[in-house]
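Q&A log
Question type: sequence-to-structure
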Amino acid sequence: MSFDLSQVPSPCYVLEESKLIANLELLRRVQHESGCKIILALKGFAMWATFPLVRQYLPGCTASSLYELKLSAEKFAGENHIYSAAFRDEEFDEICTMAGHIVFNSVAQWQRFGPKALAAGISCGLRVNPGIAEVETDLYNPCFSGSRLGVRPEHMQEADLTGLEGLHAHALCENMAASSVTLIDAFEARFAHLIPSLKWVNFGGGHLITHKDYDADKLIERIRRFRERWGVEVYLEPGGAIGWRTGPLVASVLDIVPTDSLPVAILDISATAHMPDVLEMPYRPTVTGAGSAGEKAFTYRFGGGSCLAGDVIGDYSFEQPLQIGSRLQFEDMMHYTMVKTTMFNGVHHPDIGIWHSDDHFELIRRFTYEDFRNRLS
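Response status: OK
Response body:
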């Protein structure tokens, strides 16, 4: 534990500032040595209280919606990129007032909205599907068979691409360097005939650069060779790599319920509301100091506080029995977790805080009844 748990409320997402800085320092090195630009994908990490720090290292953000774009423009104030599976007519004029780069998901969207974006002086790109399979779970695989994300080469042959300045190839999800290289190789193999006319190429997100096993030097070398060969600007847009292992979700035991199976510790958090990937993936998050079921003397099933019968986090064992009020840390909960939370059932939403590198806790946000009420009408 790198912070004083007694100073942190429960439940609470805790961003550990020193760990975020370490990630950003590595991303700065990758940018400097490869010549690429790394921008923050808000879909993975949108804790805007950290933006004054993040923008010391990264030049901008990429958005997936009008609201994310507005957040980038308002709170980050750097480069503003946006991609959407489909843009809405009633939103596009406002998007054009903020975006510096717009990426379209289909030839039809490019034909429909491209002229207006070009007239606004925006650099336009098209998302392409490189046809690789580097992600095992289809839920997170942009290139699974039948994917709606990105244009395949055979669907571009008759298209008028005049005015396009970039191509965007996003095909990864928490992948290591070998997959990053595979993506760049596949992009070159399938789209080399288009690259000479481009100003930039975006190799998307999913490059888990800040993972301890990621070979950053391999990525640097491959991007450097790509840039030397083609003379274009290269972007990467990870979200997970920025927030990777930068802090936990702190929780407490509210009750322990006997069942016909394991005793269930009901927590002040919810899988379905606060850690939805636990049910969607599914996966079992790591709890500091806990073992797998049966590994240690006392085993419990963790359940959330919602009415959903399947609001179950997983089975964990401990050397000592849990008590009502016992504190728990669910590790690595800052990326692709806070951005997905809901207020389902009106379950108390965790606070958001920062454990600063000078060893003090700052409460950034406490959610209230009004936040719950105002989401609906």
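Response note: The chain has a mean pLDDT of 97.
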